[in-house]
Each structure stands twice: as C-alpha cells, then as structure tokens.
Amino acid sequence: MSFSWQSVKSYQDILYHKADGIAKITINRPHKRNAFRPQTIFELYDAFIDAREDPSLGVILLTGAGPHTDGKYAFCSGGDQSIRGEAGYVGDDGVPRLNVLDLQRLIRSIPKVVIALVAGYAIGGGHVLHLICDLSIAADNAIFGQTGPKVGSFDGGFGASYLARVVGQKKAREIWFLCRQYDAQAALSMGLVNTVVPVAELEAEGIQWAQEILQKSPLAIRCLKAAFNADCDGQAGIQELAGNATLLFYMNEESAEGKNAFLEKRDPNFRQFPWRP
Ligand SMILES: CC(C)(COP(=O)(O)OP(=O)(O)OC[C@H]1O[C@@H](n2cnc3c(N)ncnc32)[C@H](O)[C@@H]1OP(=O)(O)O)[C@@H](O)C(=O)NCCC(=O)NCCSC(=O)CCC(=O)c1ccccc1C(=O)O
User: Which UniProt keywords apply (predicted)?
Assistant: First the structure.
C-alpha cells in the first residue's frame, strides 16, 4: 500500500511524518537497535506533543527504523547502555536522566490512540514503550523481553505493574526474573500484542487499524482511553477521566449558561435545565 507520508520536522534521532489523520513517529538509530538516549526521548516527546495538539490527528503509530545494514530489525532496545552514567543516561549536556518516564506518561495520557508497530527487538525500556501504547501490532520477526536484572536496571513503574495487568502476575514475574526473549506468537498468546502480521505488511496493517479507528467518534475514544487508564493510574487517572467530563460539560448549554451569565453580569438561569433521573 502506498501512503503519502509528509515529513513534519527534522530531528537527529527520530523521523516524524503525518498523513490523513495519522502520525508516524519512528525511532531512527538502527545501528543501536534503536536504543534511546536523552536526545531521542526529548525528540519523541516533542513529536508526541505536536501530535497531541494537532486536531486533525486521531492515531499515532510508534515504530523503529529498519532493517539495519545487517538485515536485523528493532522497535527499540531500551536505554543506550554506552552512555549510561552513575545516575541515568548522559546526554551532550552532561546531565544524567531517566526521561523516558516522562514519555511513558505522555503516551498514556495523550487523548488519541497510540499503536506500536513492532518489528524485531522490543527489549528493556523498548519493551516498556510498546507495552504502554494502546495497541501493539507485531511483525512475525518481533522479539520481546526485559533485560533489567541482567544489565543492572529495572522499571518498577508501568514496566512492572502495568505488565502484570496485561499478562498476569505470574507471567510478568517470569518475564522480569528470567529475562528470556519471546517471539511474536508467544507474545500474542499471552495478550502482549493485538495481532501478528508478516513484517512486510506491518505498516499497512497499522494504517488499516488507524483508518478503522478514525471512522469512530473522537470523544468516545478519548473517554474510553481515559477510562481504561483510570483503573490503573490512581488520582492521575481519575484527573484524566474527569477532565473529559469537564470538556463534555463545557460543550453543553447548561455550562455555557453559567459562563454567559457571568459575562453578562446577571444571575444564571439554571432552572431551565432538568435534574435528570
Ligand atoms: C537487542 C539485542 C537483543 C539485539 O541483539 P543482536 O541482534 O545480537 O545485536 P547486537 O550486536 O547486540 O547489537 C547491535 C549493535 O547495537 C548496539 N546496541 C543494542 N542495544 C543497545 C543498547 N540498549 N544500548 C547501546 N547499544 C546497543 C550493540 O552494542 C551493537 O553495537 P556494535 O557497535 O555493533 O557492537 C541486544 O543488542 C541487546 O540485548 N541489547 C541490550 C538491551 C538492553 O539491555 N537494554 C537496556 C535495558 S535497561 C533500559 O532500557 C532502561 C530503561 C530506562 O530508561 C528506565 C526506565 C524506568 C526505570 C529505570 C530505567 C533505567 O534506566 O534504569
């Protein structure tokens, strides 16, 4: 399928495209199996904010560039271990960071559907990135796993608790404690991905899913995403869900009456509105 992607902005570590209601954000460090450094995360954050603010977009595809020159694919292999310092990943400014956590929260709270398109490795912090996307479509060559306890790291946030919500406590503990790798069919059977397709069809499948979603009600989808999050995200999740209730209320005449009365320096006439059962 040919799709007319338009490049939005030039970055060092990522590619960012849009077309027909869909954004595509691609981690572009294939020589590192798309491992992220602080710069990569800043750029991803910037692109996701742009996609959130663009009302023409309803679905964001997150993927990794590939294959590399050795023929191997990767979605993302987590934090770039070659620049891991004593207190996080160290960028050109010399400051150690774990800024992928900011990105995780943004992807979860963005009121649009984020779909991970996973070809090749989704490992470590890269595995957590696909996990926190709303949907994951795997290529038949996808490989999933956590490596934290092997490389002296762990993600005790979404990487542990949300993984357990998705695959169950026993399987999540197995994934973290043994650090094994799982192929696409194993990921499908444990509910870690939504479907598996041949690698050559991965992007087309993502576009197909996005187009189906784009036929649906934007407000219904955003409220559903907030509702799914509210179950796991404590007060931040309730805030997100309640923000949507306020948004819907602002769009209602009853709410407008309060604002208009204030601006017109009169008492509001709320008696015109019913107290519904
Ligand atoms: C992904 C592999 C299994 C792929 O294996 P293979 O196909 O054999 O390729 P390689 O030859 O190993 O790799 C090719 C090339 O890429 C380089 N590379 C690959 N991954 C990384 C990486 N993560 N960092 C740096 N460089 C990487 C590799 O060195 C090769 O380079 P050459 O120059 O050609 O030699 C395999 O590569 C692999 O296992 N990679 C490491 C996976 C890993 O352990 N990732 C880190 C996990 S920890 C993490 O992601 C932390 C995330 C985080 O930020 C965080 C979040 C929340 C709480 C805490 C943290 C925290 O950081 O602690």
Answer: Lyase, Menaquinone biosynthesis
Contact 116, 205 (CB under 8 A): no
* CB-based pocket (< 6 A), ligand 1: 32-33, 35, 72, 77-82, 98, 100-101, 121, 123-125, 147-148, 151, 153, 155
Phi/psi of residue 99, nearest 5 degrees: -75, 0
Pick the CATH number of 218-265 from 3.40.50.620, 1.10.10.10, 1.10.12.10, 3.40.120.10: 1.10.12.10
Tell me the backbone φ, ψ of residue 195, rounded to 5 degrees. -160, 165
Mutate to test the pocket of ligand 1, among 81, 90, 100, 181 (most ligand atoms within 8 A of CB): 81
Domain edges within the chain: 6-214, 218-265
- On the question of pLDDT at 3 being above 90, the answer is no
Distance of CA 55 to the CA centre of its chain: 18
Specify the ligand 1 atom closest to the Cα of 148: 48
Written as six digits, the tokens of 171 are: 């399987």
Q: What is the DSSP string of 236-260?
A: HHHHHHHHHHHHHHHTSHHHHHHHH
Encode burial over 172-204: b for 16+ CB neighbours within 10 A, e otherwise. beebbeebebbebeebbebebbbebbebeebbe
- For 6-214, CATH number out of 3.90.226.10, 3.40.50.720, 3.30.70.380, 3.40.30.10 equals 3.90.226.10
Question: Whose CA is closest to atom 42 on ligand 1?
Answer: 77
CA 147 / ligand 1 centre spacing (Å): 9
Percentage of the chain lying above the pLDDT 70 cut? 99
Hey, do 6-214 and 218-265 end up sharing a CATH topology, with the first three levels equal? no
As to burial, measured by CB atoms within 10 angstroms (0-12 exposed, 13-18 middle, 19+ buried), residue 64 is buried
